[in-house]
Write a structure and sequence with these properties.
Distance between the termini of chain A: 62 Å
Distance between the termini of chain B: 55 Å
Radius of gyration of chain B: 25 Å
Largest interface: A-B, 67 and 72 residues
Number of domains of chain B: 2
Radius of gyration of chain A: 23 Å
Oligomer: heterodimer
Order of helices and strands of chain A: HHHHHHHHEEHHHHHHHHHHHHHH
Order of helices and strands of chain B: HHHHH
Number of strands of chain B: 0
Shape of chain A: globular
Strand content of chain A: under 5%
Structural class of chain A: mainly alpha
Strand content of chain B: under 5%
Strand order of the largest sheet of chain A: 1-2
Structural class of chain B: mainly alpha
Largest sheet of chain A: 2 strands, antiparallel
Number of domains of chain A: 1
Chain lengths: ~500, ~160
């Protein structure tokens, strides 16, 4: 491990990589601050830039920097304007905005920055410990287990979608898998579902789909429902310092939430959003009675908890990506797509075949956190100026960058029409409250899922591989119970509540 | 019927067409030696079509209790939002896609940014047009010279 760390330090501390981290964090903070643009859209827009650099280590470091920056920028707009740019920072606005209204915006930003820093750094330490351990286990996996593991990942994403949403998330995953079968597969050189259209021969482009699923609907929502003018005017930001007593009170919160957030982030489907809400709820429940009253009115504990948890969860979501090659969230799915485009397949072999990428990513997480703390904190009053860009200027540029992202990847104007078509469909799906991330995850995993399935079918001459490999059977059992459990629980809760009603 | 169930109905139709192709149409041209293979190109799509049809039927028939959730935008009152602007912008994107190659990057992008702002109601043309033109050139320079991706700057008939 020490060897790996040194290798990572060597790669990550080159001038080029440092510039990538700094640039990524700054771009992420800038764009993440704009309400309505989440980390997924920003990363999707940045992908063509990252891919054209050609160096996988530099690309993933840049994109990871954008990711942290976006989460941090999102919390800035949550605190200053009560307009979270990212779902993961909604919980930040519960206590951050009241603090800003009291004129303590500077303090709130400092607490947020310190909490993010600690969450991210502790998360990176945990990642360094857990990722190699997990990937050495994953090396024992066969294609049959890989197939089963991906099924578990996909069903976990559906299962964590929330009450009343399981079948919707499941349907979206299946539609994503179906879209993934369009074009010529690797196993069989046979064009499938192309409807005779030449442009579909090589399949749908993942950048186009990512833009259509995230960036375009978000931009259209901004057009349809413009934020009310004057909803929140950013005031002068001063007094960035916090007292020693305050630091003492948030230290245990940060410690607990770093660990909890990290492990929530590791779970597929449960990302920064769930981690931050859960972190907020847990801290409110275990706080003393007097402190509990403060929550929601500007408690620094209530601000530190979600901020720590969402950053730790972002780091945690890299564990399944780097060790198993299975993304647990929409953002890591986009990162996976970018890596595959650069001819790097994340998975247990990554640590052995390309250790410099693996370790450089981990080391760059530390650097990224330091950059966010050192560079962004003093710059925040200036960066916050971006919030004053009028919407009439902003939206055409967002749409333009979406189009460019899809065009540059393929150099094909048909791609733009596909983008608009899918974008309209995605907006309709968003209206009906269908989750869109499962669709993209399904699309990206589809090819790998089918390859592993076909390989095990061929090795065992049929579907018997499920019975012959106990590990596969167990994993598939877990997958089925993950999907059925929420339904079962809802049924039981209903029966129980009916029973109570009758007893009364 | 709520929008999510309409969408489930549409997706059910999609799954049925997809499934029909997988179950009946795809294997017709399969080479004889491939038929001895335990897994065919249509195997995985066949499974997917069943899963997809089941999931959309569950939503369509309302087996899963669903709480009415208020999203940012209530689609039932869509006309109260700025629907016209959104549709015009989408049309503008389609026109941009069709004209990007023939008209060249500079003209189509410049016009896209200017018209986009105009659709959204921007009237300070003396600020907006210079910004649009400068950023058009800036992006072209970035893509062409820095990233090294070819982008035709001028219309086809100019011959560049």
């Amino acid at each position: 491990m020490l060897e790996g760390i040194l290798l990572g330090l060597q790669t990550a501390f080159s001038i080029q990589m440092l510039l990538m981290v700094i640039g990524g964090c700054l771009i992420g903070t800038f764009i993440g601050m704009l309400p309505g643009l989440g980390p997924m859209s920003i990363i999707a827009i940045m992908i063509p830039v990252a891919i054209s650099m050609g160096d996988p280590a530099a690309a993933i470091i840049l994109l990871a920097g954008v990711y942290y920056g976006a989460i941090f920028g999102g919390s800035t707009s949550s605190i200053l304007l009560n307009a979270p740019g990212v779902a993961g920072t909604v919980a930040t606005s519960f206590d951050g905005y009241p603090l800003a209204k009291k004129g303590q915006a500077g303090k709130a930003l400092t607490v947020a920055a310190i909490a993010s820093f600690c969450g991210g750094t502790i998360g990176a330490v945990l990642l360094m410990v857990f990722a190699p351990a997990l990937s050495s286990v994953a090396l024992l996996f066969h294609s049959a287990e890989y197939f089963a593991l991906m099924v578990v990942g996909l069903s976990a994403i559906a299962a964590f979608a929330g009450t009343g949403q399981v079948s919707k998330a499941l349907l979206m995953t299946v539609v994503g898998l179906m879209l993934g079968t369009v074009g010529e597969g690797t196993m069989f050189s046979l064009p499938r579902f192309t409807m005779g259209i030449m442009d579909l021969q090589s399949g749908l482009s993942f950048v186009t789909l990512a833009m259509a699923m995230f960036a375009l609907p978000e931009a259209l929502f901004l057009v349809l429902n413009p934020p009310k003018p004057g909803a929140g005017k950013s005031k002068e930001i001063k007094e960035l310092g916090i007292t020693r007593q305050e630091a003492k009170s948030i230290a245990p919160v940060i410690g607990r939430q770093s660990i909890q957030g990290f492990f929530i982030g590791v779970l597929p489907g449960a990302g920064a959003t769930i981690a931050s809400f859960l972190g907020y709820a847990v801290e409110r429940n275990i706080a003393s009675k007097d402190e509990q009253k403060e929550f929601g009115k500007g408690s620094i504990k209530g601000l530190a908890a979600p901020e720590t948890a969402n950053n730790a969860a972002c780091t945690g979501s890299f564990v399944p990506l780097l060790t198993l090659g299975i993304p647990g969230s929409g953002t890591t799915a986009i990162l996976l797509g970018a890596l595959i485009a650069l001819n790097v397949t994340p998975g247990p072999r990554l640590m052995i075949d390309e250790p410099q990428i693996f370790w450089a990513v981990i080391i760059s997480m530390y650097i990224g956190n330091v950059v966010l703390l050192v560079l962004n904190l003093p710059l925040i009053p200036y960066i916050a100026k971006i919030l004053t860009i009028p919407r009439n200027y902003l939206i055409p540029y967002i749409l333009f960058f979406t189009l460019m992202g899809a065009y540059i990847g393929q150099n094909n104007a048909t791609e733009l029409l596909i983008l608009v078509g899918f974008g309209v469909c995605a907006t309709a799906l968003k209206f009906a409250d269908y989750p869109l991330a499962p669709l993209l995850i399904g699309f990206i995993l589809g090819g790998m899922l089918e390859d592993n399935f076909a390989r095990s079918m061929q090795l065992y001459d049929g579907i018997a591989f499920i019975l012959q490999r106990p590990m596969t059977m167990v994993l598939l059992g877990i997958a089925i119970s993950l999907v059925l459990l929420p339904t079962f629980r809802a049924k039981r809760a209903k029966i129980r509540s009916e029973g109570i009603a009758e007893g009364d | 019927m709520a929008l999510d169930r309409w969408i489930a109905l549409i997706l059910l139709g999609f799954c049925i067409i997809y499934g029909y192709t997988a179950w009946f149409a795809m294997d017709v041209g399969l080479a004889p030696f491939m038929k001895r293979n335990p897994v065919w190109p249509s195997t995985f799509p066949k499974i997917l079509s069943i899963l997809g049809a089941t999931a959309s039927l569950i939503i369509l028939l309302g087996f899963e209790k669903n709480k009415e959730k208020v999203t940012d935008i209530d689609y039932r009152r869509l006309h109260e939002y700025k629907l016209g602007q959104a549709i015009l912008l989408l049309l503008l994107m389609v026109v941009y896609a069709l004209f990007l190659r023939p008209a060249g990057f500079m003209i189509s992008t410049g016009l896209f940014l200017i018209l986009g702002s105009v659709i959204l109601g921007e009237r300070k043309l003396y600020i907006m047009i210079p910004i649009a033109l400068i950023s058009t050139f800036f992006v072209w320079y970035l893509v062409q010279e820095v990233l090294g991706i070819y982008m035709r700057p001028y219309p086809v008939w100019l011959g560049w």
